[in-house]
Design a protein that fits this description.
This is NitT/TauT family transport system ATP-binding protein. The chain is of the alpha/beta class. 33% of the residues lie in helices and 24% in strands. The chain has seven helices and nine strands. A hairpin with a 5-residue loop joins strand 1 and strand 2. The structure holds adenosine-5'-diphosphate and magnesium ion. The site of magnesium ion has 3 residues, from helix 1.
Length: 245
């Protein structure tokens, strides 16, 4: 980003992925992501977006090539630190736990003081506007609220890197817009790096400082193009982005 010293956080070095079924999900993906960027992986269904994101979390490994986060393999990093948080497309909450205890869970697994975890969780719930629902159970919440809890849970871990796989895809338009605004706000306040998967071009253009465009046919064509977008952008912009003017 302009005006700040750039530090490379994520690197994909000539990464390909062939599943055992014979599907070539990624072909020679090569790009880097600087600290503090909001990067969208944009492309049609099946082009390998989730596979690429899962590689950053250490949940998938390249067949050839290398993915590094902070110079380390993601598996090393996930084992050693709490620097990466993942928000999946469905909220993945534990139904028997309250909203608060769902947000506390990742911190609880790391050990430490319950009181501190609770304070951190409440702060995160406040950020997504759900502090008043801390005692509710997931079944009492709407889809959008569950997604907010899932986002709060990821943010409470104070990740350096937030990975989100189509987190708003199943939500109605109003909820999606309000969560997009909140996410941009939190991203700017917390100065984290966000990797965001979407097949929605408007969402990618609205949210991102950089877009990695992925091709539907990874086996046949060169599969990624970086688009750098001007930042900072006015928060509060609600109009549809224009592509040519
Ligand atoms: P996207 O998230 O862009 O929709 P994915 O990364 O989920 O794409 O999948 C890319 C391709 O790899 C698709 O053809 C999908 O069917 C295939 N694929 C994904 N995961 C697996 C897997 N575990 N085993 C076999 N094929 C897979
Ligand atoms: Mg996907």
């Amino acid at each position: 980003m302009a005006g700040t010293a750039e530090k490379r956080l994520v690197a994909f070095e000539h990464v390909s992925k062939m599943f055992s079924t014979g599907t070539l999900a990624l072909s020679d993906i090569h790009f880097t992501i600087q600290e503090g960027e909001f990067v969208s992986f944009l492309g049609p269904s099946g082009c390998g977006k989730s596979t690429a994101l899962r590689m950053v979390a250490g949940l998938a490994v390249p067949t050839t090539g290398l993915v590094t986060v902070n110079g380390k393999t993601p598996k090393q990093l996930v084992r050693e630190s709490n620097d990466i948080a993942f928000v999946f497309q469905d909220a993945n909450l534990l139904p028997w736990r309250t909203v608060l205890d769902n947000v506390v869970l990742p911190m609880e697994l790391r050990g430490g003081s319950r009181k501190e975890h609770k304070e951190t969780a409440l702060h995160a719930l406040e950020m997504v506007g759900l502090k008043d629902h801390m005692k509710a159970h997931p079944r009492q919440l709407s889809g959008g609220m569950k997604m907010r809890v899932s986002i709060a849970r990821a943010l409470a871990a104070k990740p350096k890197l937030l990975l989100m796989d189509e987190p708003f895809a199943a939500l109605d338009e109003i909820t999606r817009q309000s969560l997009q605004m909140e996410l941009l706000d939190i991203w700017q306040k917390e100065k984290m790096t966000v990797l965001f998967v979407t097949h929605n071009v408007y969402e990618a253009v609205f949210l991102s400082s950089k877009i990695v465009v992925m091709s539907a046919r990874p086996g046949r064509v060169s599969s990624n193009i970086d688009v750098d977008l001007p930042y900072p952008r006015e928060l509060g912009m609600r109009t549809t982005p224009k592509f040519s003017e």
